[in-house]
Design brief:
By secondary structure, this protein is mainly alpha-helical. The protein has one domain: Cytochrome Bc1 Complex, Chain C (Up-down Bundle). Helix content is 61%, strand content 2%. The protein has a two-stranded antiparallel ribbon. α2 runs antiparallel to α3. The longest helix has 35 residues. It is elongated.
């Protein structure tokens, strides 16, 4: 929403097209659901069968998030997007680009680190039980799964790096929306992504 691409603002649409709006809100929904599933799974006993069900959905939604993010990036290459608000300062435009780039990167890195975590411990990664990703991560013979190097790396990246990077990127994104919509009084800002006229 906050990203401006190059080009003449006069040739840009007033809002995002239907495909980008759908992908944007699908991403938001998936992030909310998957964060909730991940936090919920951490409260369940490791040996619990229900925990494995919850984690199965968590992994599946993570893989779906990769697909949707790639579709968003692909769509952005072809779909014209609205220009930055007229009152935007140059540093705000640069910050918006960097923040949006960070968000896209984390949306890919977060689930990929989860795959590394799972496969590093020889744990199955299934997509809604329709198919299973091939096991491509090598295992260290004789070591328990919790001591496997790629398991530990994936766990560290997923829980201690990309999780917090995601929260930071989302906070910056929402701060930009709040700044333009509320502080600057630009009542048309959110309507660009909602898809209906501002009041």
């Amino acid at each position: 929403m906050l990203l401006e691409l190059s080009g003449d603002a006069r040739d840009r649409p007033a809002g995002y097209d239907g495909a980008l709006r759908m992908l944007h809100w699908s991403t938001a929904l998936l992030i909310g659901v998957n964060v909730a599933l991940g936090l919920y799974s951490s409260t369940l006993a490791r040996a619990s069968a229900w925990r494995q069900v919850v984690l199965g959905y968590h992994k599946s939604f993570g893989l779906l998030l990769i697909v949707i993010t790639l579709l968003r990036l692909g769509r952005r290459l072809y779909a014209p997007v609205p220009p930055a608000p007229a009152q935007s300062k140059p540093w705000e435009i640069v910050a918006a680009r960097l923040g949006h780039g960070l968000l896209y990167a984390v949306l890919l890195a977060m689930p990929l680190s989860g795959v590394l975590w799972a496969e590093g411990g020889a744990r199955e990664v299934s997509f809604f039980n329709l198919f299973t990703l091939p096991q491509v991560i090598s295992q260290q013979p004789g070591a328990p799964f919790t001591q496997q190097p790629y398991y530990k790396l994936g766990k560290f990246l997923h829980e201690n790096v990309f999780q917090w990077a995601l929260y930071a990127a989302l906070a910056l994104h929402m701060a930009g929306v709040f700044k333009h919509q509320i502080l600057d009084g630009n009542r048309r800002f959110l309507s660009r992504m909602w898809g209906w006229p501002a009041r």
